[in-house]
Structure formats: C-alpha cells, structure tokens
Design brief:
The structure holds two protein chains of two kinds. Chain A is an all-alpha fold. Chain A has a domain of 230 residues. Chain A contains twelve helices and four strands. In chain B, the strands form four sheets. Chain B has a six-stranded mixed β-sheet, sandwiched between helices. Classes of the chains: A mainly alpha, B alpha/beta. Chain B: Its EC number is 7.5.2.7.
C-alpha cells in the first residue's frame, strides 16, 4: 500500500466504525423504545382512521377497559421474568370476582374484597410452592390451577352469576367512578404500574427476579434462596388476577363464574408485545403497559371501523406474531 | 505423504477478541499431528474451524487441494473430517448400532442388518462391544470407541481426537493409542489434542504449538523434547506465572470438614485448611472434586458430614447458609453457574452482597456503583465499564468478576473449581495473584484444578482424590505428576487419614 492508500484505507475504516457505532445506537434505541414507536404509530393511525379516537372520552374508555389487562400483565411480567408462565389468571380472576360478590352482602365491602384478594394470593402461593420447591413445570401447574380455580368459581356460585346487591354499591361506584375525567380503575392501574416499575428498577427483589430468569443456578450459588422469589412472583400474579376480578365484578355488577376465560392469553400477548422474553430475564413494566395498550388500540380501531368480531381475532393473532418476529430480528442484530 | 487438509491464514474473532491469529495448519494422510497449547490457546477454535463448527473470520480450508467452505459440521463430515469430542456427543438412550448410523438411518429400519453392519465396524477396531447395548450403560472408554466407529462408518479420512485419554484409565488409554496407531497405518489422517505431553511425544509424528491464538511452531515430534514443548506452550518459564509461595507460618485451622459423604463420589472425606493456606484438590476428572466442593457449599444434598469454621460447627443446608458462614464458591462452569451472563458486571458483582446495598430492599445505587468500581479496578477487570454485560468480557475477565463477587463475602473460606479453565495466559497469572492475595489476607483457600502445573505452582499442599475418597496427600517436596495420577487411579485407599500438623517451611 502507498501512504496515500493507507490514509484512505484508514479513513474508510474510521467511517465504517462510526457507521457501525451509529447502527448500534439506533438498534439499542429501537430495542428500548421499539414498543413505544409501534404505539405512537398506532395512535397516529387510529387518529387518522377515526376522528373519534383521540377524544378524551374514547381515550379514558379505552384505558378503563385496558386497566384490568394491564394490572394482570404486571403480575404476569414478574412471572415471565423468572422464565415462568401463569395460565391460571383468567380463572383466578373469576374466583376473586365471585368471592367479592358473594361475601359483600354479609361481610361488607372491605372484608369481602380482602377475602377475594387473599384467595388470589393463595392460588398463587399453591402454584409457586409446587413450581419452586418440587421443580414442577410452570406450564403444567398453572394449567392445573386454571381448571381448579375455574371449577371452584362455579362451585362457590352454584353455577349462577351473583348480582351485586346494595351493600356493594361502593364497589360499583369505584369501578365506574371518575376523578375529574379519569376513571378510578385507571388511577389504580397507574399506581400499580408505577409500583411495578419501581420494584423492578430500584429494589433487590426486582433485580434478583430478573437474574433468576437469566440464570437461576448462578443466583442460587451466590447464596440466594431463589425458591422464595419464585413463589413470590406467582403470589403477585395471583393477587393481581383477583384484584382484576374484583374490578370487573364492580364494573359489571355481577360476580360471574365464567368471566375471564382466555384472559391469560391476552395478558401473555401483552407482555410479549411489550418486549419481555418468555425465556426470562428481560422485560419492564412500562413496555408491558404499552404492549397491553397496543392490543387495546387495535381492538378499538377495529371496533370504530366496524371490523367483525371473528376477523378481529384473526388480526390480533397476526399482530402478535408480527411483534414477536420484530423483536427476534432486533435481538439478532444486537448480538 | 501428501497434505490431506490445509488450513491457511485462519483467523477468528469473537466480538473484539481474536481467538485465532492467522494460523496455518496441515495434516497429511497417515500421520498423527498433535496440537498442543494451554487452555484458551485456540486449539478448540481451530478444530472447530476444521470440523465445520466454527466459521472462520478469514482464511481458507482446502481438502486434497480443493478449497472448501464448511458452514456446518455436515459439510466437514461430507469432506471426510470427523471429530471425537471431549464431551462425547452420543444419544445415551439409543443403542450402539443406532448411534453409529445415526444420521443415515433408512426410513424403514432393518434391525438385523443395522446390527451386523455395526458389529463389522466394531470388529475392525478390535473391540467387542454389543451393537444392541444402550450407550448410557457403557463405560466411558467404550462410548469413545463407538464415537470412533461412527466416524469410520462415515468414511472419515481425518479424525480429530480432543483430549481422548483425559477420562480414561491407563490400560484403556494404551488401547486407544494403539487403535490410533493402526488407524494411522490404514492411511487415516489424525489430529491429536492432548495436555499429556508424554502421550504426544509417544504417538505424534508432528507437533504444532498454539499460544494465545497464534501459531508458535510446527515441528517433527522426534526433534522436540517435552521440556521444549512446555516452553513453547507457555511462552515463558512456568515458575514465573505463579508468584512466590508463602514462607511465613500459617494461621490456625479455620476450616475443617469431617466425614463428608454425598453420593458415590464423596465418600467419608475429612480434611482441614489453615488460615493463609492454599490446599489443592487434585485427581482425574470424575474423581469427585467438584462434587466435594458442591457438597461443602450446600449446593447439593449431602448424606452426612460436619463442617467447622473457626473450630465451631456450622449448619449448611443450602448455599445461603454457606455464604452466611463466610464460605464462597467459584464454580467450575462459569457461564452456567458462575455468572448471569447477560447481566452487567455491577449486577453480578453485588449479587452475593445485595443486602449490604439495599438495607430496606431498595438498592442504593451510588454506593453500589462506587463499590463495584473499586472492586473491578482492584481485580484489573478489563471492560467498557461496570454496566457492560459480562458477556462482552473475555473468559479471564469474566472469571475475575466471579472471584470479585466473593472477595468480601467469603471472609473465611473460598473454594475455586477450575478457576483458570479457558483463560488466556495473561489473565491466568493475574488470577493466580488474586488467589494468593485471598490466602494472604487470612482465608483458607481450596483450589480444584486439572492443570497439574497450576496445582503444584500455587498450592501449599495437594489432596489427591480418586473415586470419591482422598487417596493421598502431597507436600511440596512430593509434587510430581506421576505420583498424583497414580494416587488418583489407585483402587485401594493408600491413605485415608490426612496430616495437618506440618509447617510450610518443612
């Protein structure tokens, strides 16, 4: 090489590295904010398709509908971070909902809600204990809990939906009420999301949950009783599901044993679209919220533009696949 | 003889790290070409390139004069190149015959024919192995023969042996070497990777030495002595790597294990380690060293045994108890057990001591960052910063992170299981210095290593394990590779009681 060529060679190399660096920056941006980008694009598309979309009323309505999904998705996120899965949440939701409706007339609202939430905790505790200490597969155990809890909801109600009576009017008021333009359940959801974000970002619990999902053995050999953390995430998930059940009972005025069938799949879809890895260790609360909102907005757009229900299901499935493929591509480029 | 395979100018980069730097390597038909070098020298990567497992960043491969491109192991096999892996890659639940013909089973299986064909190949090798036996039921030596049979049935014309005798007893090893000789006389080209230099001197026609990814030399085996091979491999006199041994007396016996039993590979072990002392656990792979470490640490269940720290018994049911008692373990499998590979240096370093940084469960980030920053500076971890994922570090630096997470927590005892496996020479000597410092600060250090130079260079005493028992104890004057191996292979216990009363000066 002549000196001149040498310099040119050096320059072109320098340019290449600079481009490479920018490429990496761009990719880490999309990895971090990829879900946000999709979300913003969707909002823009929705606003374009329907002038009703960006009205305060529609937005608040959308958020209220999504709030139960989001609450459960935060619980599911913790489970997924440990490389687990919780298929029981749709049924646990029903258990929570019917218990609140059943007990409210006699026990009063606070006690009945407390019992409903404790029931959710117990379902999670049962799953978590079996999974963590007997090393049974989460898929199978929570699948079993799904049918056990569903059956229990039917047994508790004798198969009939339980109407909320006047003693529980406070619950209906809460689930249907507003502070200014913001529905109460949306505020509750926001508080839970903030709490989830905080726990995952700033506490040792959150850090260890993620680390366990990446490499449980390394965490265990660091002197941490990993089983306790695994039990805890299922307890959280069960609690969130029961809470969602109470809210739904409040909103509909009925504790129905058949409510929430298939919700677990919707919630898992939200978590996955939010960028969490089902292989554990990766995911965060805010992106999970975006994942749930993306699903909700697509549903909302299709409703506003009169897409028939069955077609909606097909489109939803396609969206999930697209989201996962997108993430896969991003991850490959990253490594 | 002509070159069967020529590798020219092979380079391989993993991330920013060069694992191979412009390496040339040729193998002739009918020769045994030994490839030697320290762990991490690039032997496995080079053989990965030759067997299609690793795609080189640059360089050409030619087989019988034609340039080939191997993008999968299948391509290499099609070119007549087979590799006998260190961890044998046979399906344990299938039969010998099924394994041999694994990748070309007919759609409709004629079982009788399959077994006949398998028996024929095994006969050619001179081994009587039942083609209908299940692989999982065979001893390791026979499984290796099955691997070789599989390679031959694929018409392999070059076979790569990766540390084939590491897991074999002496008589099986001798039979294997004879088998390799007869393959050579049939015109098969053979690449032989081994740490046992006496075997290399015995069997090889040519020797190639790699160090730190570079080709150091290729010589005719008869022109090079074992001492010379060592010097070429290490690149400097061995003794310089390990630093000075302690000359001052040790402290009290702060760590003691009494009648530890856990499964077949940990049988009634008793020994002690004094403050400031580095005690080695030597022996063959499978002699129970790792199992002993895990049983002490509470990582695996144990049947019986007591553990004493500072003279008082501690109850260890799980790793958490061990950590509380001041014991740390640097596990054998770094990626699988030592680090959370995709988490940052910071997260890995404070994993053992997270409570210190999160009094109310909320992590004090500033405190944590300062701590980790100081730690990785002291351990000379080369990285892009404390938030870099451990994945981005070289093996040696990853290992420093694993040791780093124990420095403060393992205040009494630190157990290191193969701490320099897959680590380059530079990082090795740094890790040795760290281990010395851990001992000098008054800890009891238990070092497990299959690298005998390392055991002898670092340890004040070596306990030799064989089949789950302590077979012998070697003092510095008795540090001798042959002695260690023969003790580990002994069937009857030579010595089950262990001396602890002598002084290091003696």
């Amino acid at each position: 090489m002549t000196p001149l060529q040498n310099v040119q060679h050096f320059r072109s190399n320098a340019i290449k590295t600079e481009r490479h660096r920018q490429g990496v920056k761009f990719l880490s941006f999309t990895r971090r904010y990829g879900t946000l980008v999709i979300f913003v694009l969707l909002v823009a598309a929705a606003a374009y398709i329907s002038t009703d979309f960006l009205t305060l009323r529609n937005v608040m309505n959308l958020l209220r509908q999504a709030s139960t999904t989001i609450i459960m998705a935060i619980g599911m996120l913790f489970v997924v971070l440990t490389r687990g899965i919780d298929l029981s949440i749709g049924s646990v939701l029903a258990v929570g909902g019917v218990i609140a409706a059943l007990l409210a007339p006699e026990w009063g609202l606070p006690a009945s809600i407390a019992v409903a939430l404790v029931a959710g905790l117990i379902c999670g505790l049962a799953c978590g204990t079996l999974i963590a200490y007997l090393r049974l597969p989460p898929f199978v155990i929570t699948l079993a809990m799904m049918t056990v809890a569903r059956g229990s909801a039917f047994i508790l109600t004798g198969g009939q939906p339980i109407m909320l009576n006047d003693a529980a009017s406070g619950l209906s008021a809460f689930a249907g009420g507003y502070i200014g333009p913001v529905p109460y359940p949306v505020l509750l959801m926001a508080a839970i999301v903030l709490l989830g974000t905080f726990v995952l970002m700033f506490t040792s619990f959150g850090r260890l949950v993620k680390a366990i999902g990446s490499n449980e053995e390394a965490v265990r050999l660091s002197g941490i009783r990993t089983q306790r953390y695994i039990v805890a995430v299922y307890v959280i998930s069960g609690f969130m599901a029961a809470l969602a059940g109470v809210l739904i009972t409040g909103r509909t005025g009925v504790g129905a044993p058949n409510v929430g069938v298939g919700f677990e799949l919707q919630v898992i879809a939200a978590v996955v679209i939010g960028g969490a890895s089902l292989m554990g260790g990766r995911g965060d609360a805010l992106n999970t919220v975006l994942g749930a909102l993306i699903l909700a907005i697509i549903g909302n757009i299709m409703n506003l533009s009169n897409v028939p229900g069955y077609t909606q299901q097909v489109i939803m499935g396609a969206v999930i696949v697209a989201a996962v493929i997108l993430q896969k591509i991003q991850n490959q480029k990253m490594s | 003889m002509t070159d069967f395979v020529q590798l020219i100018g092979i380079e391989k980069h993993f991330g920013g790290i060069a694992a191979l730097k412009s390496v040339d390597f040729t193998v002739k038909s009918g020769e045994v070409h030994a490839l030697i070098g320290e762990n991490g020298a690039g032997k496995s990567t080079l053989m990965g390139v030759l067997s299609g497992n690793v795609i080189p960043t640059a360089g050409t491969i030619s087989v019988e004069g034609c340039v080939r491109r191997f993008s999968t192991p299948g391509d290499a096999i099609a070119a007549g190149i087979a590799m006998i892996h260190q961890e044998l890659v046979l399906a344990p639940d299938l039969t010998v015959a099924e394994n041999i013909f694994m990748n070309r089973m007919p759609r409709l299986i004629d079982w009788a024919k399959l077994r006949r064909d398998a028996a024929q190949i095994l006969d050619r090798l001179g081994f009587e192995i039942d083609p209908g036996a299940t692989i999982g039921d065979l001893p390791l030596a026979q499984r290796q023969i099955v691997e070789i049979a599989k390679a031959l049935s694929l018409n392999a014309r070059l076979i790569i042996f990766d540390e084939p005798t590491a897991v074999l007893g002496p008589s099986d090893a001798r039979r294997l070497l004879n088998l390799i000789r007869s393959l050579r006389s049939e015109g098969v080209a053979i690449v032989y990777i081994s740490h046992r230099l006496d075997e290399v001197a015995d069997i090889a026609d040519r020797v190639t030495v790699l160090n730190d990814g570079s080709l150091i030399a290729t010589r005719a085996a008869k022109d090079v002595t074992i001492e010379e091979m060592v010097r070429l491999m290490v690149g400097r006199p061995i003794s310089a790597l390990f630093g000075e041994k302690r000359t001052s007396p040790f402290g009290a016996e702060i760590f003691r294990v009494e009648s530890l039993t856990a499964g077949p590979l940990v049988q009634d072990l008793s020994f002690g380690v004094r403050a400031g002392e580095i005690v080695g656990l030597g022996g063959l792979i499978g002699s129970g060293r790792t199992e002993t470490a895990r049983a002490i640490f509470g990582a695996d269940k144990r049947e019986s045994g007591r553990i004493f720290i500072d003279g008082s018994q501690v109850k260890i049911r799980d790793p958490r108890d061990a950590v509380k008692a001041g014991i740390g373990l640097v596990p054998e499998d770094r990626r699988g057990q030592g680090v959370v590979i995709d988490a940052s240096i910071r997260i890995n370093t404070t994993m053992t001591s997270l409570r210190r940084f999160s009094p109310a469960g909320i992590i004090k980030r500033t405190f944590e960052r300062r701590f980790v920053g100081e730690k990785i500076a002291a351990l000379k971890v080369k990285s892009a910063g404390i938030d870099a994922p451990v994945q981005s570090l070289s093996g040696g630096n990853q290992q420093k992170v694993v040791i780093g997470k124990w420095v403060d927590v393992a205040s009494k005892v630190i157990i290191l299981d193969e701490p320099t496996r897959g680590v380059d020479v530079g990082a090795k000597s740094e890790i040795y210095a760290i281990i010395r410092r851990l001992a000098d600060e008054g800890r009891a250090v238990l070092l497990i290593s299959s690298d005998h130079q390392e055991l002898f260079g670092l340890c004040d005493r070596v306990l030799v394990m064989g089949r789950g028992r302590i077979r012998s104890e070697l003092l510095p004057g008795e540090f001798d590779e042959e002695r260690l191996l023969s003790a580990s292979l002994a069937i009857e216990p030579i010595q089950t009681t262990v001396r602890t009363d002598q002084n290091p000066a003696g």
